[in-house]
Amino acid sequence: MRFNSNFISKAGLALLVVFMATSCQDFLEEDPKNFVAVTNFYKNGDDAVAAVNAIYGYLNSTSTGSTAGVYHSTFWVTAGLASDELLNQNVFSPDLDQLATFSHGPQNAALLEIWAMHYKAITVANIALERIPGIEMEPNLKARLLNEAHFLRGLLYFDMVRMFGSIPLLTKEVEPLTPPVATADEIYAQIITDLKAAEALPVSYPSGDGKGRATQGAAKALLSKVYLTRKDWTNAAQRAKEVIDSNNYALWEDFADVFKLVNRNGKEAIFSVGFGDQGGAISFWEVGQFQVRLLPTELSAEGVENAQGWQVPTLYLYNSFDFNDRRREVTFLTQYTNRSGVVTPIRPYIQKYWDRAAEPKGNGSANDFPLMRYSEVLLIYAEASNELNASAEAHQYLNMVRKRARFDGTTYRTTVPDYESLTQEQMRAAILKERALEFVGEGHRWFDLARTKTLEKLVPLAKPGVVPSTKHYLFPIPQRERDLNPNLPQNGY
User: Fold this and answer.
1) Domain 233-453: CATH class, spelled out
2) What angle do CA 382, 388, 390 make, to 5 degrees?
3) What pLDDT, on a 0 to 100 scale, did the predictor assign at position 17?
4) For residue range 315-324, what is the model confidence (pLDDT) as tens digits?
5) Neighbouring-strand partners of residue 288
6) 10-201+475-484: what fold?
Protein backbone atom coordinates (compact mmCIF):
# COMPACT_ATOMS: atom_id res chain seq x y z
CA MET A 1 0.00 0.00 0.00
CA ARG A 2 1.19 3.52 -0.64
CA PHE A 3 0.54 6.83 1.03
CA ASN A 4 -0.97 9.66 -0.96
CA SER A 5 0.01 12.82 0.90
CA ASN A 6 -1.80 15.33 -1.30
CA PHE A 7 -3.68 16.48 1.80
CA ILE A 8 -1.45 18.08 4.42
CA SER A 9 -3.15 20.79 6.41
CA LYS A 10 -1.62 23.71 8.30
CA ALA A 11 -0.49 21.48 11.18
CA GLY A 12 1.36 19.19 8.82
CA LEU A 13 3.01 22.12 7.09
CA ALA A 14 4.08 23.58 10.41
CA LEU A 15 5.73 20.29 11.35
CA LEU A 16 7.58 20.20 8.06
CA VAL A 17 8.97 23.69 8.61
CA VAL A 18 10.03 23.00 12.18
CA PHE A 19 11.72 19.64 11.58
CA MET A 20 14.22 20.32 8.82
CA ALA A 21 17.26 19.76 11.06
CA THR A 22 20.14 17.42 10.20
CA SER A 23 20.64 15.31 13.30
CA CYS A 24 18.99 13.90 16.37
CA GLN A 25 20.44 16.66 18.57
CA ASP A 26 19.37 19.35 16.11
CA PHE A 27 15.77 18.50 16.92
CA LEU A 28 16.42 18.87 20.60
CA GLU A 29 18.09 22.25 20.13
CA GLU A 30 15.18 23.81 18.20
CA ASP A 31 14.10 27.23 19.43
CA PRO A 32 11.41 26.48 22.06
CA LYS A 33 9.12 29.07 20.49
CA ASN A 34 8.80 26.77 17.49
CA PHE A 35 7.31 24.10 19.70
CA VAL A 36 4.87 26.62 21.13
CA ALA A 37 3.82 27.53 17.61
CA VAL A 38 3.25 23.87 16.75
CA THR A 39 1.20 23.45 19.91
CA ASN A 40 -1.31 25.96 18.60
CA PHE A 41 -2.17 23.64 15.72
CA TYR A 42 -3.25 20.65 17.83
CA LYS A 43 -6.90 21.56 18.17
CA ASN A 44 -9.05 19.23 16.08
CA GLY A 45 -9.22 16.01 14.09
CA ASP A 46 -7.85 17.58 10.92
CA ASP A 47 -4.76 18.65 12.84
CA ALA A 48 -4.32 15.10 14.15
CA VAL A 49 -4.60 13.66 10.64
CA ALA A 50 -2.05 16.16 9.38
CA ALA A 51 0.35 15.29 12.21
CA VAL A 52 0.33 11.61 11.21
CA ASN A 53 0.46 12.49 7.50
CA ALA A 54 3.69 14.33 8.25
CA ILE A 55 5.28 11.08 9.47
CA TYR A 56 4.30 9.29 6.28
CA GLY A 57 5.67 12.22 4.31
CA TYR A 58 9.12 11.61 5.71
CA LEU A 59 9.12 8.06 4.32
CA ASN A 60 9.31 9.26 0.72
CA SER A 61 10.45 12.75 -0.10
CA THR A 62 7.42 15.00 -0.21
CA SER A 63 8.00 16.53 3.20
CA THR A 64 11.71 17.15 2.96
CA GLY A 65 12.08 19.83 0.32
CA SER A 66 15.31 19.15 -1.54
CA THR A 67 16.31 16.26 0.70
CA ALA A 68 15.69 12.57 0.18
CA GLY A 69 13.24 10.89 2.54
CA VAL A 70 13.90 7.71 4.53
CA TYR A 71 13.19 5.30 1.66
CA HIS A 72 13.88 7.58 -1.30
CA SER A 73 17.06 5.76 -2.37
CA THR A 74 20.01 5.76 0.04
CA PHE A 75 18.48 3.17 2.38
CA TRP A 76 17.82 0.46 -0.20
CA VAL A 77 21.00 1.25 -2.12
CA THR A 78 23.06 0.83 1.06
CA ALA A 79 21.42 -2.51 1.85
CA GLY A 80 22.28 -3.70 -1.66
CA LEU A 81 25.84 -2.40 -1.88
CA ALA A 82 26.91 -3.69 1.54
CA SER A 83 26.13 -7.25 0.43
CA ASP A 84 26.51 -9.59 -2.53
CA GLU A 85 23.70 -7.84 -4.45
CA LEU A 86 24.92 -4.52 -5.91
CA LEU A 87 28.02 -2.78 -7.23
CA ASN A 88 28.49 0.99 -7.48
CA GLN A 89 29.22 2.67 -10.83
CA ASN A 90 28.66 6.26 -9.71
CA VAL A 91 32.16 7.74 -9.81
CA PHE A 92 30.96 10.82 -7.93
CA SER A 93 29.90 8.81 -4.85
CA PRO A 94 32.97 7.56 -2.96
CA ASP A 95 30.73 6.91 0.06
CA LEU A 96 28.83 4.33 -1.97
CA ASP A 97 32.09 2.77 -3.20
CA GLN A 98 33.09 2.36 0.43
CA LEU A 99 29.86 0.54 1.21
CA ALA A 100 30.27 -1.78 -1.77
CA THR A 101 33.83 -2.68 -0.77
CA PHE A 102 33.25 -2.72 3.01
CA SER A 103 35.79 0.07 3.49
CA HIS A 104 33.21 2.44 5.00
CA GLY A 105 33.75 4.16 8.33
CA PRO A 106 32.13 6.68 10.69
CA GLN A 107 32.52 9.54 8.19
CA ASN A 108 30.37 7.88 5.53
CA ALA A 109 27.79 10.41 4.29
CA ALA A 110 25.23 7.81 3.22
CA LEU A 111 25.08 6.38 6.74
CA LEU A 112 24.75 9.88 8.20
CA GLU A 113 21.77 10.53 5.92
CA ILE A 114 20.10 7.29 6.98
CA TRP A 115 20.63 8.10 10.66
CA ALA A 116 19.41 11.70 10.36
CA MET A 117 16.32 10.98 8.29
CA HIS A 118 15.18 8.14 10.55
CA TYR A 119 15.49 10.27 13.67
CA LYS A 120 13.65 13.15 12.02
CA ALA A 121 10.74 10.85 11.24
CA ILE A 122 10.88 9.29 14.72
CA THR A 123 10.72 12.74 16.30
CA VAL A 124 7.65 13.68 14.26
CA ALA A 125 6.05 10.37 15.34
CA ASN A 126 6.83 11.11 19.00
CA ILE A 127 5.18 14.52 18.75
CA ALA A 128 2.06 13.01 17.22
CA LEU A 129 1.90 10.34 19.92
CA GLU A 130 2.16 12.93 22.70
CA ARG A 131 -0.11 15.63 21.25
CA ILE A 132 -3.00 13.70 19.68
CA PRO A 133 -4.32 12.25 22.97
CA GLY A 134 -5.12 15.79 24.15
CA ILE A 135 -7.27 16.64 21.12
CA GLU A 136 -11.05 16.42 21.41
CA MET A 137 -12.05 14.43 18.35
CA GLU A 138 -13.86 11.31 17.17
CA PRO A 139 -12.51 8.47 19.39
CA ASN A 140 -12.13 5.79 16.72
CA LEU A 141 -10.21 8.11 14.42
CA LYS A 142 -8.00 9.19 17.32
CA ALA A 143 -7.19 5.57 18.19
CA ARG A 144 -6.45 4.74 14.56
CA LEU A 145 -4.09 7.69 14.10
CA LEU A 146 -2.21 6.86 17.27
CA ASN A 147 -1.78 3.27 16.15
CA GLU A 148 -0.54 4.40 12.74
CA ALA A 149 2.09 6.49 14.51
CA HIS A 150 3.02 3.45 16.64
CA PHE A 151 3.43 1.36 13.48
CA LEU A 152 5.65 3.94 11.80
CA ARG A 153 7.83 4.46 14.87
CA GLY A 154 8.23 0.70 15.22
CA LEU A 155 9.20 0.41 11.56
CA LEU A 156 11.79 3.18 11.83
CA TYR A 157 13.39 1.81 14.98
CA PHE A 158 13.49 -1.66 13.41
CA ASP A 159 15.67 -0.27 10.62
CA MET A 160 17.90 1.57 13.05
CA VAL A 161 18.51 -1.14 15.63
CA ARG A 162 19.40 -3.66 12.93
CA MET A 163 21.83 -1.24 11.29
CA PHE A 164 23.43 0.45 14.32
CA GLY A 165 22.68 -1.66 17.41
CA SER A 166 22.63 0.32 20.66
CA ILE A 167 21.25 3.79 19.89
CA PRO A 168 19.20 6.44 21.70
CA LEU A 169 15.62 5.29 22.27
CA LEU A 170 13.65 8.52 21.96
CA THR A 171 9.95 8.14 22.73
CA LYS A 172 9.04 11.61 24.04
CA GLU A 173 8.66 14.97 22.38
CA VAL A 174 11.32 16.54 24.61
CA GLU A 175 14.44 14.48 25.29
CA PRO A 176 17.88 15.29 26.78
CA LEU A 177 20.26 17.13 24.47
CA THR A 178 22.71 14.24 24.72
CA PRO A 179 20.51 11.17 25.22
CA PRO A 180 22.03 7.92 26.43
CA VAL A 181 21.82 4.79 24.33
CA ALA A 182 19.50 1.87 24.97
CA THR A 183 20.44 -1.76 24.52
CA ALA A 184 19.23 -3.61 21.46
CA ASP A 185 16.91 -5.64 23.70
CA GLU A 186 15.32 -2.46 25.03
CA ILE A 187 14.83 -1.10 21.54
CA TYR A 188 13.29 -4.33 20.30
CA ALA A 189 10.94 -4.35 23.30
CA GLN A 190 9.70 -0.89 22.27
CA ILE A 191 9.34 -1.98 18.64
CA ILE A 192 7.24 -4.97 19.67
CA THR A 193 5.10 -2.78 21.96
CA ASP A 194 4.50 -0.32 19.13
CA LEU A 195 3.62 -2.99 16.60
CA LYS A 196 1.31 -4.84 18.98
CA ALA A 197 -0.59 -1.58 19.45
CA ALA A 198 -0.74 -1.24 15.66
CA GLU A 199 -2.40 -4.66 15.37
CA ALA A 200 -5.62 -2.85 16.28
CA LEU A 201 -5.50 -0.95 12.98
CA PRO A 202 -8.20 -1.50 10.34
CA VAL A 203 -7.89 -4.48 8.03
CA SER A 204 -8.44 -2.10 5.10
CA TYR A 205 -9.66 1.38 4.26
CA PRO A 206 -12.55 2.52 2.05
CA SER A 207 -11.81 2.55 -1.67
CA GLY A 208 -10.10 5.78 -2.66
CA ASP A 209 -9.14 6.62 0.92
CA GLY A 210 -6.21 5.63 3.07
CA LYS A 211 -3.86 4.57 0.29
CA GLY A 212 -0.55 3.62 1.83
CA ARG A 213 -1.72 3.86 5.42
CA ALA A 214 -0.67 1.12 7.79
CA THR A 215 -3.13 -1.72 8.29
CA GLN A 216 -3.57 -4.60 10.69
CA GLY A 217 -1.96 -6.88 8.11
CA ALA A 218 1.06 -4.59 7.81
CA ALA A 219 1.49 -4.56 11.59
CA LYS A 220 1.28 -8.35 11.86
CA ALA A 221 3.59 -8.88 8.89
CA LEU A 222 6.23 -6.51 10.23
CA LEU A 223 5.90 -8.02 13.69
CA SER A 224 6.52 -11.47 12.19
CA LYS A 225 9.72 -10.12 10.63
CA VAL A 226 10.81 -8.61 13.95
CA TYR A 227 10.29 -11.94 15.68
CA LEU A 228 12.16 -13.72 12.88
CA THR A 229 15.11 -11.37 13.34
CA ARG A 230 15.03 -12.11 17.07
CA LYS A 231 14.93 -15.86 16.33
CA ASP A 232 11.60 -16.11 18.12
CA TRP A 233 10.43 -18.71 15.64
CA THR A 234 7.12 -19.49 17.32
CA ASN A 235 5.86 -15.93 17.34
CA ALA A 236 7.26 -15.28 13.86
CA ALA A 237 5.34 -18.25 12.49
CA GLN A 238 2.18 -17.30 14.39
CA ARG A 239 2.03 -13.72 13.09
CA ALA A 240 2.94 -14.70 9.53
CA LYS A 241 0.24 -17.40 9.52
CA GLU A 242 -2.33 -14.89 10.78
CA VAL A 243 -1.55 -12.71 7.75
CA ILE A 244 -1.78 -15.72 5.43
CA ASP A 245 -5.04 -16.97 6.95
CA SER A 246 -6.63 -13.52 6.73
CA ASN A 247 -6.98 -14.07 2.95
CA ASN A 248 -6.48 -10.32 2.45
CA TYR A 249 -3.36 -10.80 0.33
CA ALA A 250 -2.28 -12.99 -2.56
CA LEU A 251 0.54 -13.36 -5.07
CA TRP A 252 0.15 -12.01 -8.57
CA GLU A 253 0.29 -15.06 -10.81
CA ASP A 254 2.92 -13.41 -13.00
CA PHE A 255 5.95 -11.83 -11.32
CA ALA A 256 5.91 -9.14 -14.04
CA ASP A 257 2.62 -7.82 -12.65
CA VAL A 258 4.09 -7.03 -9.23
CA PHE A 259 5.76 -3.81 -10.40
CA LYS A 260 3.23 -2.48 -12.91
CA LEU A 261 1.95 0.94 -11.97
CA VAL A 262 -1.66 -0.12 -12.41
CA ASN A 263 -1.12 -2.70 -9.65
CA ARG A 264 0.19 -0.34 -7.00
CA ASN A 265 -1.66 -0.88 -3.75
CA GLY A 266 -2.69 -4.26 -5.16
CA LYS A 267 -3.24 -7.64 -3.58
CA GLU A 268 0.46 -8.38 -2.97
CA ALA A 269 1.31 -5.02 -1.39
CA ILE A 270 1.36 -5.22 2.40
CA PHE A 271 3.13 -1.93 3.02
CA SER A 272 4.77 0.30 0.42
CA VAL A 273 6.02 3.85 0.12
CA GLY A 274 4.76 5.75 -2.92
CA PHE A 275 6.40 8.43 -5.04
CA GLY A 276 5.24 10.85 -7.69
CA ASP A 277 1.72 11.27 -6.30
CA GLN A 278 1.78 15.00 -5.66
CA GLY A 279 0.16 16.13 -8.90
CA GLY A 280 1.31 18.99 -11.11
CA ALA A 281 5.01 19.45 -11.78
CA ILE A 282 6.95 16.60 -10.19
CA SER A 283 10.32 17.58 -8.76
CA PHE A 284 13.46 15.43 -8.67
CA TRP A 285 12.84 14.65 -5.01
CA GLU A 286 9.18 13.63 -5.45
CA VAL A 287 9.86 10.59 -7.62
CA GLY A 288 11.57 7.33 -6.86
CA GLN A 289 15.13 6.99 -8.13
CA PHE A 290 14.75 3.45 -9.40
CA GLN A 291 15.32 4.39 -13.05
CA VAL A 292 18.06 6.97 -12.67
CA ARG A 293 20.03 4.63 -10.43
CA LEU A 294 19.32 1.28 -12.06
CA LEU A 295 18.73 1.71 -15.81
CA PRO A 296 21.74 1.99 -18.16
CA THR A 297 22.73 5.12 -20.06
CA GLU A 298 22.49 3.10 -23.27
CA LEU A 299 18.69 3.38 -23.07
CA SER A 300 19.00 6.99 -24.19
CA ALA A 301 19.05 5.41 -27.66
CA GLU A 302 15.46 4.32 -26.97
CA GLY A 303 14.39 7.76 -25.76
CA VAL A 304 14.78 7.02 -22.05
CA GLU A 305 15.75 10.14 -20.11
CA ASN A 306 18.21 10.46 -17.24
CA ALA A 307 19.08 6.77 -16.94
CA GLN A 308 22.48 6.73 -15.24
CA GLY A 309 23.06 3.13 -14.19
CA TRP A 310 24.68 4.17 -10.94
CA GLN A 311 24.11 0.82 -9.22
CA VAL A 312 24.25 -2.56 -10.96
CA PRO A 313 23.70 -6.16 -9.87
CA THR A 314 26.68 -8.38 -9.29
CA LEU A 315 27.16 -10.99 -11.99
CA TYR A 316 27.09 -13.58 -9.22
CA LEU A 317 23.52 -12.57 -8.41
CA TYR A 318 22.48 -12.62 -12.06
CA ASN A 319 24.01 -16.06 -12.56
CA SER A 320 22.24 -17.38 -9.45
CA PHE A 321 18.93 -17.47 -11.31
CA ASP A 322 17.75 -20.54 -13.18
CA PHE A 323 17.72 -19.66 -16.88
CA ASN A 324 13.92 -20.07 -17.07
CA ASP A 325 13.13 -18.35 -13.76
CA ARG A 326 10.54 -15.69 -14.68
CA ARG A 327 12.09 -13.34 -12.14
CA ARG A 328 15.33 -13.32 -14.13
CA GLU A 329 13.81 -11.82 -17.29
CA VAL A 330 11.57 -9.44 -15.33
CA THR A 331 14.31 -8.23 -12.99
CA PHE A 332 17.18 -7.72 -15.42
CA LEU A 333 17.80 -5.85 -18.66
CA THR A 334 20.56 -7.37 -20.80
CA GLN A 335 20.17 -5.60 -24.14
CA TYR A 336 18.94 -2.41 -25.77
CA THR A 337 17.74 -1.40 -29.21
CA ASN A 338 19.22 1.67 -30.89
CA ARG A 339 17.30 4.02 -33.17
CA SER A 340 18.27 1.94 -36.20
CA GLY A 341 16.70 -1.16 -34.67
CA VAL A 342 19.99 -2.86 -33.88
CA VAL A 343 19.87 -4.96 -30.70
CA THR A 344 23.04 -4.76 -28.62
CA PRO A 345 23.81 -6.93 -25.57
CA ILE A 346 25.02 -5.25 -22.36
CA ARG A 347 25.94 -6.40 -18.87
CA PRO A 348 22.83 -6.97 -16.68
CA TYR A 349 21.07 -3.96 -15.19
CA ILE A 350 17.99 -3.93 -12.96
CA GLN A 351 14.76 -3.03 -14.75
CA LYS A 352 12.05 -4.53 -12.51
CA TYR A 353 10.70 -1.15 -11.35
CA TRP A 354 10.42 0.18 -14.90
CA ASP A 355 6.92 -0.05 -16.35
CA ARG A 356 7.80 0.55 -20.01
CA ALA A 357 4.19 1.05 -21.07
CA ALA A 358 3.29 3.52 -18.33
CA GLU A 359 6.62 5.39 -18.12
CA PRO A 360 8.34 4.94 -21.50
CA LYS A 361 10.80 7.79 -20.91
CA GLY A 362 11.77 6.41 -17.51
CA ASN A 363 12.69 9.83 -16.09
CA GLY A 364 12.14 9.22 -12.41
CA SER A 365 9.42 6.82 -11.36
CA ALA A 366 6.00 6.97 -9.77
CA ASN A 367 6.39 3.34 -8.71
CA ASP A 368 6.20 2.27 -5.08
CA PHE A 369 9.07 1.18 -2.90
CA PRO A 370 7.81 -2.18 -1.54
CA LEU A 371 8.75 -2.39 2.11
CA MET A 372 6.84 -5.65 2.54
CA ARG A 373 5.20 -7.88 -0.04
CA TYR A 374 3.07 -10.97 0.53
CA SER A 375 5.80 -13.20 -0.86
CA GLU A 376 7.98 -12.17 2.07
CA VAL A 377 5.33 -13.30 4.55
CA LEU A 378 5.28 -16.70 2.85
CA LEU A 379 9.06 -16.94 3.11
CA ILE A 380 9.02 -15.81 6.75
CA TYR A 381 6.53 -18.55 7.55
CA ALA A 382 8.65 -21.09 5.68
CA GLU A 383 11.80 -20.03 7.53
CA ALA A 384 10.20 -20.04 10.96
CA SER A 385 8.57 -23.42 10.24
CA ASN A 386 11.93 -24.87 9.24
CA GLU A 387 13.49 -23.73 12.52
CA LEU A 388 10.56 -25.30 14.37
CA ASN A 389 11.24 -28.60 12.56
CA ALA A 390 7.97 -28.34 10.61
CA SER A 391 9.58 -29.49 7.38
CA ALA A 392 6.37 -30.06 5.41
CA GLU A 393 5.16 -26.52 6.06
CA ALA A 394 8.56 -25.07 5.21
CA HIS A 395 8.60 -26.85 1.85
CA GLN A 396 4.96 -25.96 1.11
CA TYR A 397 5.29 -22.22 1.63
CA LEU A 398 8.72 -21.89 0.05
CA ASN A 399 7.39 -23.66 -3.03
CA MET A 400 4.44 -21.26 -3.28
CA VAL A 401 6.98 -18.57 -4.13
CA ARG A 402 8.93 -21.00 -6.31
CA LYS A 403 5.79 -21.90 -8.28
CA ARG A 404 5.23 -18.28 -9.25
CA ALA A 405 8.80 -18.18 -10.56
CA ARG A 406 7.87 -20.92 -13.06
CA PHE A 407 5.05 -18.94 -14.68
CA ASP A 408 6.21 -17.32 -17.92
CA GLY A 409 3.10 -15.21 -18.44
CA THR A 410 1.28 -18.00 -20.25
CA THR A 411 2.24 -21.40 -18.88
CA TYR A 412 4.12 -22.93 -15.97
CA ARG A 413 7.63 -24.01 -16.96
CA THR A 414 8.81 -27.38 -15.76
CA THR A 415 12.45 -26.33 -15.62
CA VAL A 416 12.15 -24.39 -12.34
CA PRO A 417 11.33 -27.29 -10.02
CA ASP A 418 10.02 -27.30 -6.48
CA TYR A 419 12.39 -27.90 -3.60
CA GLU A 420 11.99 -31.44 -2.26
CA SER A 421 13.30 -33.39 0.71
CA LEU A 422 15.67 -30.70 1.96
CA THR A 423 17.39 -31.07 5.30
CA GLN A 424 16.98 -28.23 7.79
CA GLU A 425 20.36 -26.76 6.80
CA GLN A 426 19.61 -27.11 3.09
CA MET A 427 16.27 -25.39 3.66
CA ARG A 428 18.03 -22.45 5.37
CA ALA A 429 20.24 -22.00 2.33
CA ALA A 430 17.33 -22.39 -0.09
CA ILE A 431 15.22 -19.75 1.66
CA LEU A 432 18.14 -17.32 1.80
CA LYS A 433 18.69 -17.84 -1.92
CA GLU A 434 15.00 -17.41 -2.78
CA ARG A 435 14.96 -14.15 -0.84
CA ALA A 436 17.91 -12.98 -2.95
CA LEU A 437 16.08 -13.83 -6.18
CA GLU A 438 12.70 -12.48 -5.09
CA PHE A 439 13.72 -9.14 -3.58
CA VAL A 440 16.46 -7.74 -5.84
CA GLY A 441 16.82 -4.00 -5.20
CA GLU A 442 14.22 -3.97 -2.44
CA GLY A 443 16.53 -3.17 0.46
CA HIS A 444 16.65 -6.62 2.08
CA ARG A 445 19.96 -8.21 1.27
CA TRP A 446 22.37 -6.77 3.85
CA PHE A 447 19.77 -7.36 6.55
CA ASP A 448 19.35 -10.99 5.44
CA LEU A 449 23.08 -11.68 5.38
CA ALA A 450 23.59 -9.91 8.71
CA ARG A 451 20.87 -11.78 10.58
CA THR A 452 21.99 -15.14 9.15
CA LYS A 453 25.67 -14.36 9.81
CA THR A 454 26.64 -15.14 6.22
CA LEU A 455 28.33 -11.89 5.13
CA GLU A 456 31.85 -13.35 5.30
CA LYS A 457 30.79 -16.47 3.40
CA LEU A 458 28.67 -15.03 0.58
CA VAL A 459 30.05 -11.59 -0.22
CA PRO A 460 33.47 -12.83 -1.47
CA LEU A 461 31.68 -15.14 -3.92
CA ALA A 462 30.10 -12.11 -5.59
CA LYS A 463 32.94 -9.65 -5.03
CA PRO A 464 36.30 -11.42 -5.21
CA GLY A 465 38.82 -9.75 -2.94
CA VAL A 466 36.16 -8.08 -0.79
CA VAL A 467 36.10 -9.78 2.59
CA PRO A 468 33.74 -8.48 5.30
CA SER A 469 34.58 -9.08 8.94
CA THR A 470 32.53 -9.47 12.09
CA LYS A 471 32.38 -5.69 12.62
CA HIS A 472 30.31 -5.38 9.44
CA TYR A 473 27.29 -6.94 11.13
CA LEU A 474 26.60 -3.40 12.30
CA PHE A 475 27.30 -0.10 10.59
CA PRO A 476 29.43 2.58 12.26
CA ILE A 477 27.57 5.28 14.14
CA PRO A 478 28.18 8.52 12.21
CA GLN A 479 31.05 10.47 13.72
CA ARG A 480 29.14 13.74 13.41
CA GLU A 481 26.53 12.34 15.81
CA ARG A 482 29.21 11.15 18.23
CA ASP A 483 30.80 14.60 18.18
CA LEU A 484 27.44 16.07 19.21
CA ASN A 485 26.61 13.36 21.74
CA PRO A 486 29.46 11.87 23.80
CA ASN A 487 27.09 9.15 25.07
CA LEU A 488 27.13 7.42 21.67
CA PRO A 489 29.43 4.38 21.45
CA GLN A 490 31.12 3.08 18.31
CA ASN A 491 30.61 -0.30 16.64
CA GLY A 492 34.19 -1.50 16.24
CA TYR A 493 35.23 0.98 13.54
Assistant:
1) mainly alpha
2) 65
3) 37
4) 999 999 999 9
5) 365
6) 1.25.40
